[in-house]
Design a protein that fits this description.
This protein is mainly α. Helices cover 78% and strands 0% of the residues. It has 2 domains: 39 residues; 209 residues, MetI-like fold (Orthogonal Bundle), CATH 1.10.3720. It is flat, with a radius of gyration of 27 Å. 30% of the residues are buried.
Length: 294
């Protein structure tokens, strides 16, 4: 009798364990299915863009739709650099984005260090005001910026893009770097000061190296924002297809087939994808240190 009870109890425990594993497997299956649906939803436009860019012209508008090209056709990319001169617009975007990133980081690192480590009055109020400016839509500033840039004589120059980009990027950079600098122990700063370091030396020799993941994250985000920006570049560069037009605006005004337009989009988007793929781990670390803490 006791043996029968033990067998029944063991069988009951086994069934409960199997039920528990079954429910866990079901939840995991549903979670992965949902993730797969989201992945397909977000990646399909990029897939279709890339496929259209390498389709022969006769297959771009073919019906029924061809999901894969019959052969790789690179004529669309050759047309971009032979007839459309996309390389000049990519160079302009690179100059504007790199200059914006460098200037923004130089200004924001100093401001963030002052807000995080120096005894300034009303630091919390200043930081709140800085964060509030992040919520301002850039398009609402276009009329004022246009008049200011016109009076300065900067319209139709790269300065007309770099100056607004720096101004729009600074609040985000100061906010994320201030939170990151706050995580650095004050004892290290005090020890460096005792050793004879001035405030700038403490910043560049102690604080900045320790916050390098967040600084890199801010730099990547600023670069991508400046690289992809369209509204200011379309408004402040007055001459269509001018020598200083950026790549997004030039691609928007491209006259050609869908294949050429898709190839142009692939070329413009590719640096963004590569940059994020290379620095994805540091971006996650930097966002965690600069945004989630503090």
């Amino acid at each position: 009798m006791a043996t029968g009870v033990a067998v029944a109890d063991f069988s009951s425990r086994g069934r409960r364990r199997l039920d528990r594993y079954g429910r866990r497997a079901l939840r995991l299956g549903m979670l992965w299915s949902l993730n797969l649906c989201f992945l397909i939803f977000f990646l399909f436009p990029f897939y279709w863009l890339a496929v259209t860019a390498v389709k022969p012209p006769r297959e771009v508008d073919a019906y029924p739709v061809q999901w894969l090209p019959s052969s790789l056709y690179l004529g669309n990319f050759r047309a971009l650099f032979s007839f459309f001169d996309l390389q000049y617009y990519l160079f302009n975007s690179s100059v504007v984005a790199v200059t914006t990133t460098i200037l923004t980081l130089l200004l924001s690192i100093g401001a963030a260090y002052a807000l995080a480590k120096l005894p300034l009055p009303a630091k919390r109020t200043l930081l709140v005001l800085i964060v509030l400016t992040v919520s301002i839509a850039g398009i609402t500033l276009v009329p004022t910026l246009y008049l200011l840039l016109r009076d300065l004589g900067w319209l139709n120059t790269r300065k007309a893009l770099i100056a607004p980009y720096v101004a729009m990027s600074l609040p985000f950079a100061i906010w994320i770097l201030t939170n990151a600098f706050r995580q650095i122990p004050s004892e290290l700063v005090e020890q460096a000061e005792v050793d004879g370091c001035s405030a700038p030396q403490v910043l560049w020799r102690v604080v900045a190296p320790m916050a390098s993941p967040t600084i890199l994250t801010a730099g990547v985000v600023i670069f991508l924002t400046a690289w992809n920006e369209f509204e200011f570049a379309a408004i402040f560069i007055l001459d269509v297809h001018s020598s200083i037009e950026t790549a997004p605006v030039a691609v928007a005004g491209l006259d050609g087939s869908w294949g050429v337009a898709s190839a142009a989009c692939v070329v413009v988007v590719a640096p963004v994808i590569v940059l994020v793929a290379v620095f994805q781990n540091r971006i996650v670390q930097g966002m965690a240190a600069g945004a989630l803490k503090g």
